[in-house]
Amino acid sequence: MDTERLRTALENAGVTQYEADAYVALLEHGTATASELAEASDVPQTRIYDVVRSLADRGYAETYQEGSLQVRANDPETVIEDLESYADTFLDAAEEIDQRWSQPDVTHATISVVSQPQTVLRQAREWIESAEHEVEVSATPAQFERLRDAICAAFDRGVVVKLTLTREDDAIPPASDLDPEMGEPGGAESDTDRPFADVREQFEGCVTEVRYRDMETQFLAVVDREHAAFAPESTLPDSSRYGVLVNDASLSRVFYWFFQTALWNTWETVYSTRSEGLPATYSNIRECLHHVTPLVRDGARVVLTVEGVDTESGESVELTGGISNLVSAEYDFEVDAPPLASFVHQATIWLDVDDETYTIGGWGSYMEDVEGERFTVELVEAED
After folding, report:
1. Distance CA 370, CA 367 (A)
2. SS3 state of residue 261
3. pLDDT score of 109 more than 80
4. Nearest residue to 272 via CA among 316, 221, 212
5. pLDDT above 70 coverage of the chain, percent
6. Residue pair 61/73 in contact by the 8 Å Cβ criterion
């Protein structure tokens, strides 16, 4: 450190400019008369005695008489303690600033636009950790790995988890995407002949269904139809990178339909727990209808549990009963998923519970008795 920076550091620690100049000069001379110290430090002769007394009061120097007033530097322990205390204070302040900046509170904000992609992933993780019904995620293998523990924990709680895994770009992601709180992206590069073979074994016990989208895409997480976290492709230049955080059911619906139509419905299923038999759980009434419509039309008895909201009272309800009727779009139910054209048609289930019949709709229903959030096919009994 040069002399000028040393003086500045001493001044920042609380000494005056004249005291800093005199102390630095005293360190270089060891011992000096007051007049010699004034000359060496450019402190005015009229001020040097006050400066020397101040340094002595701080414990930085001591004075004694030997014909004239002599000044010498004390052991620097006191000065070092003062500087270290000053440094600790600033380090603590820096850490506090970093902590407060890196944990933005978006709980009460309807929509927030952020400049850091890692903020989007971090907020997505927090929402996934508190998910109750449904999580829909579009992510690269690296992004999935960074959220995997939160996603698996949600699945363990009974949350329906849909994952669209997208192709990883060959380029190294920008340094701004690497969040030390969430860990570095992991896993080997994917084999183009066996997409995501390195993470495929991680699906079991973690997600309900996985689809593969063979192109680069945006990161998106939609949670419980209330929250959405979005970030554009990592290959965009830094000047074009941003994130959007939504904490509103109406706005989240825009991202929900983007996920359904662009990122989910038309892509190949590579893993599904629903192939393992009953019970089979769905968070989308159209996917449930795709499963049960052929069965009901063939005369089978289908027992369904619906968790949702009473459209009149707004209270949560859970109903279990047999399907007595349904309305669905007409299409080939042998295909893997409902076609996009079916999304504009009515989707309603009539559920007989004890002596009552309830009409069940999907997200945003207001004409039916219940807005369904979770549909579980419990039992299928074929007609004799």
Report:
1. 9
2. helix
3. no
4. 212
5. 86
6. yes
Structure tokens at 26: 């005293």
Residue listed under structure tokens 């929509």: 111
The SS3 call for residue 250 is helix
What is the distance between the alpha carbons of residues 231 and 239, in angstroms, rounded to a whole number? 13
Residue 248 makes CB contacts below 8 A (sequence gap 6+) with 110, 111, 226
Range with the largest mean pLDDT of 39-53, 89-103, 178-192: 39-53
- Indicate the class that CATH gives domain 3-78: mainly alpha
- Residue where the block lists tokens 């230049």: 237
> Topology of 111-274 in CATH?
Endonuclease; Chain A (3.30.870)
List the chain domain ranges. 3-78, 111-274, 277-381
Q: If you compute the radius of gyration of the chain from its CA atoms, what whole number of angstroms results?
A: 34
Please determine whether the domains at 111-274 and 277-381 fall in the same fold group of CATH: no
- Going 341 to 343 to 345 to 347, the CA torsion angle's sign is positive
Length of the chain in terms of residues written: 384
Measured in whole angstroms, the distance separating CA 342 from the mean position of its chain's CA atoms is 33
> Which amino acid is present at 5?
R
Q: Which CATH number fits domain 277-381: 3.40.50.720, 1.50.10.20, 2.30.30.690, 3.40.309.10?
A: 2.30.30.690
Confidence of residue 241 (pLDDT cuts 50, 70, 90): confident
Least confident of 143-147, 237-241, 245-249, 364-368: 237-241
For residue 384, what are its two tokens? 């004799």
Contact 283, 134 (CB under 8 A): yes
- Please give the distance of CA 148 from its chain centroid, rounded to a whole number: 12
Q: pLDDT of 295-348, one tens digit each?
A: 999 999 999 999 999 999 999 999 999 999 999 988 888 887 888 888 889 999
Q: Are strands 160-166 and 243-247 parallel, antiparallel or unpaired?
A: unpaired
Dihedral, CA atoms, 334, 337, 343, 348, nearest 10 degrees?
A: 70
Task: Output the pTM of the full model.
Answer: 0.63
